[in-house]
Amino acid sequence: MSLIAVPLLKRLGPVAVSAYSCLISVPMLASWMVVADGASLPAPTLGQLAALAYLGSIVTVGGFVLWYAAIGLLGAERAGLFSGVLPISALGCASIIGAGEVTLAQLGAIGVVLVGITVGMRVAPTPDGAPSDDRNAFTRRGAARSSALRSA
Q1: CA 9, CA 14: separation in Å to the nearest integer?
Q2: pLDDT by position in tens, the chain (length 152)
Q3: Do residues 113 and 88 make contact, with C-beta atoms less than 8 angstroms apart?
Q4: Could you say which of 16, 55, 117, 144 is the most buried, measured as most Cβ atoms within 10 Å of its Cβ?
Q5: 116-149 burial by CB neighbour count: b if 16+ within 10 A, else e?
């Protein structure tokens, strides 16, 4: 969905792309619910309704808007690198609430993810936004700009 949204972000912005994504997904999920479970769905309790409202409005909308804003700023390839932070934050939350322990292997995995994000962010983007394998592109562009400024 993120790759489909890239060209739309420039025209619509992250809020509209998020709204359209939700508008498309709700009927799809509702129809799948009927196919998978049948039409018998119990009415939610007041507490469940409150949880659904919170998850639907704050978590989903906030997450979509922040994600599409990041794609607009960083590009899909660089924003995608940060999806590696999700298991790290889940591990941190689980250890904070006492639902899990952090092991040495998990710390090693965190290190691998952080190295991957760092290396991925250091790859210089090309003018069209795609990453380039040329790690000296920023240096050459800076040199070209400074020589253009000197000659002007």
Answers
A1: 6
A2: 677 777 888 888 888 888 888 888 888 888 888 888 776 777 889 999 999 889 888 888 888 888 888 888 888 888 888 888 888 988 998 999 999 888 999 999 999 999 999 998 887 665 555 544 444 444 444 445 445 445 55
A3: yes
A4: 117
A5: ebeeeeebeeeeeeeeeeeeeeeeeeeeeeeeee
Contacts of residue 72, defined as CB under 8 A and 6 or more positions apart, other chains included, come to: 9, 10, 13, 14
Q: Provide CB contacts within 8 A for 79, sequence distance 6+.
A: 2, 67, 70, 71, 73
Based on its alpha-carbon atoms, the radius of gyration of the chain, rounded to whole angstroms, reads 22
Hey, what amino acid is at 8? L
- Which alpha helices (DSSP H) does the chain contain, by range? 2-12, 14-37, 46-54, 61-74, 76-81, 85-96, 104-122, 137-151
As a whole number of angstroms, the distance between CA 61 and CA 148 comes to 45
Neighbours of 83 (CB within 10 A): 12
